[in-house]
Amino acid sequence: MKLGVVVLAAGQGTRMRSERPKVLHALAGRSMVAWVLASLDGLAVADCVVVVGHGADQVAAALPAGVSSALQAEQKGTGHAAQIGLGALDATCDTVLILCGDTPLVRSELIAQLVAIHVSAGRPATMVTAVLDDAGAYGRVLRSLAGDLDAVVEARDATPEQLEVGEINAGIYVADRAALEAALAGVGTDNAQGEIYLPDALPLMGGPVGIVVSDDPLVVAGVNNRIDLADCEAELQRRLRERLMLDGVTMTDPTAVFVDHDVRVGRDTVLLPGVHLRKGSTIGEACAIGPDCIVSASHIGDRCTLITTHVYESAIADDCQLGPFAYLRPGNQMHAGAKVGTYVEMKNTTLGAKAKVPHLSYVGDAEIGEATNIGAGNITANYDGFRKHRTVIGARVRTGSDCVFVAPVTVGDDAMTAAGSIITHGVPAGALGIARSRQSVIEGFTAKATARAAAANEKDKGNA
Ligand code: UD1
Ligand code: CA
User: Fold this and answer.
1) Which residues line ligand 1 (CB under 6 A)?
2) Is the pTM above the cut of 0.90?
């Protein structure tokens, strides 16, 4: 047996009401079609073709390496799409697995079981069905008295009695390639949609079709509108959270934690409500994340604390503290034990070990040495209106409150800057940089000013 796979993904998905091709809608950080392809993990697949049509270029461009596409220029039905896919499939594949691009909950266990049963039973085709409480718009599975498949009837073509049938076609099939090609050639378009229906080929396979009834109806759920999309997202989130919890992650309210499929979280880390972990982020062990954090395309070390903080494309080492209300834009690196505190925005900056930016600051395009403390309200003025420049601050530096560093500028190790200074020139190591006008004091000012004001009032009254 040499297995080829055809994924049907050319449909417009009209009911999604979207500019985006249906199979490119994202679930837990990856496209619907990528979820379907992931169900092939662990299966020996010789060739895989995705049939594309609506948004063909976009869909083809989103496919992983090793998966090719075939164009179905006009969508004449699932049977027609299967014919196009078969036409593009490696000629040496004698068995074909057909999946729909809009069933993202399908699991590799089910596919493996389907293929194994197909091979051992030796039927010309084997299909997956499920029994639903509400069979809705799915195709109904009509069986003979002996229990074999008679036909699949689409909901739109079904009689009221047929609509009562709870067993539905999941749209997942494995078949002898030559038999399927011959059967499809004999399928007409005499149905409500005037299309070539793939399930209509099943009774023409030249022998009884095997049926695998999935014990989990969710596995076969198809996405046709945004309500289905949200339901599938909820199910995928449930699976991903369960995997994390079984791996040793605590979630005080799992329904309020949202993770992408490729996120990793270490043991004994606690995820509080409102946490969103995205784009392959990795979180170390024994961290406390949340409430209300976004971590995207970032690495967080062990024992870090993040409270109400957003982190994008940054690398945070062990024992760091962030937030509440810190915003890390792309390109930051925080070394061990560093801290970014309340109302701090940081971008493209390296913070040395144990360096701190505790309050109300903007730090961009900067390098800050170890154990340096940035005072409250400091700003790196990194943009001169034309170009960005770097601020380099050494180790063990203490900057006063409300300093502005007009980049490019360098402050040496162990230096200090006075509060309220606009630092425009380098401060050497160990020096104090002070850049503000000296305070003057006017003795007895308040009394004199009060007397002057009283005299002016008297004069106004006299004039009235
Ligand atoms: C289909 C089945 C139905 C089954 C259900 C399971 C048919 C006729 N009906 O219905 O029995 O219960 O799936 O989810 O097969 N596609 C193409 N080209 C086309 C038409 C469709 O590539 O010309 C693709 C779509 O992009 C989609 C898949 O085939 O990924 C299924 O098509 P869809 O229109 O969603 O079929 P359903 O009405 O859901
Ligand atoms: Ca569908």
Assistant:
1) 8-11, 51, 53, 72, 75-78, 80-81, 100-103, 138-139, 152, 154, 168-171, 197-199, 222, 224
2) yes
